[in-house]
Every structure is written in C-alpha cells, then in structure tokens.
Design goal:
- Helix content is 43%, strand content 19%.
- By secondary structure, it is of the alpha/beta class.
- The protein folds into two domains: 66 residues; 205 residues, 3-Layer(aba) Sandwich (Rossmann fold).
- The strands form two sheets. It has a seven-stranded mixed β-sheet, with helices on both faces.
- The longest helix is centred in the N-terminal third of the chain and has 16 residues.
C-alpha cells in the first residue's frame, strides 16, 4: 500500500468522525510527517512511495485518538512557537499564535527601558510550556527570566524546553502562584487562565476535554487570576516596569480598569491579527517602589 492510500484511509476516519475534509487532510499530514521525520517537501513528493509497515501501524492509532478530539500537538508532543519547537504534554496549555504578540511587545519594551546588554529581570507568570520565558531568553541573552507556575508537572515541561533551546542557565523556575514573591522585575508577562467557566460548554472539545482546566478557566467571569495578579505585579515591578497580559475577547476594558485600580498607568490595549483586543499593557509609575 502506498503512502497516499494510507493517507486516504486515515482521512476517511476523521471525516467519518465529523472533521471537515481539508482539516482532516492537514491533521493526517502533520501526524504522518511526524512519524516519518519528513519535511513538507518530502511529504508532498513521496506520496506514491510504498508505506513502511511500521509507519502505517503507528499512524492509525494516532488518527483514532485524533478522531476522539485529542489535539494534534499532544499526539506529536510538539508545537511551534515564535519559530522554535516546544515540547508539549497534556500538563500544559498548547501555545497559540496570538500569544507571540506578547513576545513582540516585550522585546520592544525591553529595548526602550534598558541598554542592549544591561541585565534585566523578567517574570513569566503561569509559564506552562515555558514558551514565553524560553523565547524571551533566547531572543535576548542579557535577560534573567523567572518563570512561575502552580503545577510542578508544567514546570518540568518548561525546564525541558529551556534545556532544548540552550537557555537553562538563564531561566529560573519557581513553583508558586503569581510572581511567587519576586521583587524588582522590569517586565512581567502572563497568559493567565481567562476563559469564564460559563463558556466551558461552548469551547471546542479539543480544548475543553484535553487541555488543563487550571490553565484555561479563570472563574465565573474569567478574571479571578488577573484580579489577584494586578496588585502582586504592581508590587513586583520596579519603577517604570511593564506588565503585559493576554486576555479573552471582550475582557480588555475590564482588565484595564483592574490595572488602573491597582496603580498602573500608561494603559494600552493591543489587538491581535483578527482585530480582537488581546494584550493589555500597564506600567508602574517611575516613582513607585
């Protein structure tokens, strides 16, 4: 049997499970290439090759798991973020493209507030896979990054990603909530749980049934963690420090008010590529201590 024939059979399984044909083909291609270790070019040009027996035997169980809703990233164990491959497991949220905007903004703010080689302390609250902490450390060698999480399993994944990208010596992992008592940070970044519990049943099953609930849900209105983070971040930041928080659709105004109520100034909202206000930014006054 050729690779193309195996692919056709695998796609049919997903379509029968309710997947759109195009989405099914994409998922099968990702799973198939992952097992073969091929790039996209090899996958496209070698569809008429005979399928290795072991490959076909390994592919179908993954396809069946995908048909049940299990995310592709958990099946392959990896997801790309900011041009780097990150290990992911069901213990961590799967990195999303919109979160890359935090990195873009953070790099600009770091450049505005410090010399190119000046040591800067950054805190990543709720690090999960470590995608923000590791990326910032890899992009700016002078950064000292503190990554916190309440999940020891998540911290283990994040530490592995730091080693994978050769920044383990500049990222410290702390088991604790919020900033875990950090003081004197220049920048705090966070992609906290912000989905309202009332929205749970409206989520795609890939998210609702497989990703960690503690990384998804922020209480009745989605803002419980952000309410706690606002005063803690203000305390942890030095004068003129910056907080960057990812938020859900329709939450930016409420989060801006929370930051203002806790002393932040220079409030700004940054929309994602879909035009949804996605990142809320606040700064501590230069005279804060």
């Amino acid at each position: 049997m050729t690779i193309a024939a195996c692919v056709h059979r695998a796609v049919a399984v997903l379509v029968d499970a309710g997947f759109a044909p195009d989405a099914a083909r994409i998922d099968v291609a990702v799973l198939g290439r992952h097992l073969l270790g091929w790039d996209t070019a090899a996958w496209l040009t070698r569809q008429r090759d005979d399928a290795p027996a072991a490959w076909g035997e390994a592919l179908m169980p993954l396809v069946v798991r995908r048909a049940s809703g299990e995310p592709v990233a958990y099946l392959t164990g990896t997801r790309e973020f900011y041009g780097r491959a990150f290990t992911v497991t069901p213990d961590v949220l799967i990195p999303r493209p919109e979160t890359e905007q935090i990195v873009d903004l953070a790099l600009v703010r770091i450049g505005e507030t410090a010399a190119a080689d000046a040591p800067v302390t950054v805190v990543d609250v709720g690090t999960g896979s470590g995608c923000l902490a590791v990326t910032l450390a890899a992009e700016r060698p002078h950064l000292r990054v503190i990554a916190t999480d309440t999940s020891t399993a998540a911290l283990h994944v994040a530490a592995g990603n730091a080693a994978r990208h050769d920044v383990a010596d500049r990222v410290a992992y702390t088991h604790g909530s919020l900033t875990a008592g950090t003081a004197g940070a220049r920048l705090i970044v966070s992609n906290p749980p912000y989905i309202p519990l009332t929205d749970r049943d409206r989520l795609m099953r890939d998210v609702r049934d497989f990703e960690p609930a503690t990384a998804l849900f922020g209480g009745a209105d989605g803002l419980d963690v952000i309410r706690a983070l606002a005063p803690d971040a203000f305390r942890a930041l030095g004068g003129g420090g910056t907080l960057l928080i990812e938020v859900g659709a329709g939450q930016a105004s409420a989060v801006g008010r929370l930051l203002a109520d806790n002393g932040f100034t220079g409030l700004a909202t940054h929309a994602d590529l879909a035009g949804i206000p996605r990142i809320v930014e606040g700064r501590t006054p230069a005279t804060s201590v």
